[in-house]
Here is the input.
Amino acid sequence: MIRKIIIFIGLLFVSQFSAQKKEQLQQQNADLKKQISSINANLAKTQNQSKLSVAYLNAVNQKIQLREKVYTNTQKEKRLIEDDIYLRQLEINRQNRELAVLRKNYADVLVTAYKNKGVQNKVTFILSAKNLGEALRRVQYLKQYSDYQDKKAAEITDAALQLKNSIASRQKSMQEKENLLSNQEKDLQTINVDRQQKEKILADFKANESQLTVELKQKQVESKALEGKIRTIINEEIKLA
Here is the structure.
């Protein structure tokens, strides 16, 4: 009789302990399932964000491609400017040679005028004519000679002005080239920033999704283990009933 009482008390104690243990396990399992549900929700959110990020990344890719086209066009423009600078330099060289010839010719004219004392002393040159006809011809000659000198001087002035304008145009083209090079550097920096931004977005989403997947698997394993323990306790209770 006493033995039966002891066995009954032992079974009662074991049953209470098992019930308490089962309740704890069930509570832990419920908590795990909540965590799993939360992780699943985060995964779904991440996947939705990933879908949104695909559109965003496509926009970033398009922006990068457009910037690369701008950079390519700038490269072409730079080559055109370099060609223009080269041609302008050739023109400057030609104008320098032409100006040198004009100055030499004008110097020769001045030397000739210096040697011709009669031409320098115009009044004496005219009055020394034998008759009126010759005097008129000498007046006409002096006028033509003066016009010729003025023409040569004007040619030199025009040539020098053209040369100055050509040099200024070349300097302008060179400045345009420098500005393009500066813009190119900025474009390259912007493209690199966009690429880094793209890579960071991809890495962040992959890392976040991978971490959530690992956590989900871990919680699922823990939940299955607890379910196994609960089933074991229930089976023991059934046997004891």
The mean pLDDT is 70. The radius of gyration is 51 Å. The longest helix spans residues 2-115.
